[in-house]
Write a structure and sequence with these properties.
Layout lengths: L7 E6 L4 E5 L22 E7 L9 E4 L7
Antiparallel strand pairs: 1-2, 1-3, 3-4
């Protein structure tokens, strides 16, 4: 994904479990490690927000997880 450089990206599952990562200087971020209790199963819905370095939080974007197998 891509957001404001230096922003904290927060991904929250339906149960409220949170994963946060910080975007790099180009606004790119990657989240490939979720805690065991995070619902990242196919068709589950998560919300994603960004909090910029000046502490402005975006409205949530809701995304449905799709599992893609790359072989």
């Amino acid at each position: 994904g891509a957001v404001t450089p230096g922003a904290t990206v927060t991904i929250r599952d339906a149960d409220g479990t949170v994963v946060s990562v910080v975007a790099d200087a180009n606004g790119a971020f990657d989240c490939d490690a979720f805690p065991a209790d995070f619902d990242d199963s196919e068709d589950s819905q998560v919300s994603i927000t960004q909090t910029t370095p000046d502490h402005s939080e975006s409205d949530p974007v809701y995304v449905t997880i799709a599992v893609v197998n790359m072989y």
